[in-house]
Design brief:
single chain; alpha+beta; four-stranded antiparallel sheet; globular
């Protein structure tokens, strides 16, 4: 099986100040990176962890 290249996208809520890109097209990983400094690397977590993070952010 060929690895899937990340499909990076930004949130529609960020407008012109895109700070974070997310790639969630891989079954086992959700990745996030800094839009303005991609050389800093990325954060990769399991989808369930990402969902918990997003839900937490929505509540705060």
């Amino acid at each position: 099986m060929q690895p899937v290249s990340p499909n990076w996208r930004t949130s529609s809520y960020t407008g012109t100040e895109n700070c974070v890109e997310v790639a969630d097209n891989q079954p086992a990983l959700v990745m996030a990176r800094d839009t303005k400094d991609r050389s800093r690397g990325l954060l990769a977590v399991q989808p369930t962890t990402w969902v918990a993070f997003v839900e937490f952010v929505k509540e705060t």
